[in-house]
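Ticket #4471: structure output looks truncated?

Reporter: J.K.
Steps to reproduce: submitted the chain below (334 residues) through the standard prediction queue, then opened the result file.
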Amino acid sequence: MTARRQPRLALLLGDPAGVGPEMGVRLLARAENAQACEVLLVAPPSVLASGESIVGTKIPVHAAATREDLRFEAGRVTQLALREPEGGLPPIGQCSEAAGEVALEALATATALAREGFVDGIVFAPLNKHALRLAGMQEEDELRFMQGLFGVRNFTCEFNITDGLWTSRVTSHVPLREVADLITAQAVADAVHILDAALKRASVARPRIAVSGLNPHAGDGGSIGREELEVIAPTVERLKRDGLEASGPWSPDTVFIAARRGDFDAVVSMYHDQGQIAMKLMGFERGVTLHGGLPVPVATSASGSAFDIAGKGVARVDGLQHAFDLCLQMAGQR
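Returned output as attached by the reporter:
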């Protein structure tokens, strides 16, 4: 019987004008990461070289321009060398179409490799959504872009994870004025179910999930909005009858205090900033974003492209390392 190979993770360097290349190099410089799995770096050589120059570290890689020429060796990084950007590397610290094109090609390539079963998971350094849109991305974010390439029709959701606490959200990168109309029973149930399934895959046997309200004080009995009474509370009761350990709706301004105390394993928030602000205050540099609902685990750090510090060599790698570790754990269970 042929021994099962180690999990294989694709690593992307994110927006080449941001802190992604230097964060990726710091991650690759840790020998234990390449020992733990087969690492496939998906990037143009110049983007890797840019990160190496900023950090002052050379990463030995086996590079090839085609999948057929790739060779994986224990403890060594393999690179699928993507085409170089036309006109050279985009300027560091600036949002641009050119930088978005580099990042978008890496995303599309890694997704294709995952769809074909060539890699078991994807880890990417911080992207810039505006740059991706300048480069032609039509979707609201990279999750929905990858969802289309995978052909996934079911509900997908970003999970944010800090120090063992998980969140999902009912709505994501949409204008705030549209949020209330998107809070439906199906959307709330989907956000709870997908979070419950992911936590179980991450070895939490019976996840305790708090569902946030939408309005201040969770609507105050209907005096500050009725979404809690008409949509959220009935959905939570139905989920409980189905056997999930869900509760709520909880007041949005206090639910994360209870969660941080350990009362819950996860929180379902109703919109992006409701959960993101709380989670980033708890540990911005340690946070992980996991894309739930895709066929393979896809993870990144919770931090952004950080154009203001790009190129200075001060970006920390903690969040990206946690994303790598989580992706590896989940890929190993596939």
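Triage note (M.O.): checked the attachment and the full token line is present. The two ends are 19 Å apart (CA to CA).
Status: closed, working as intended.
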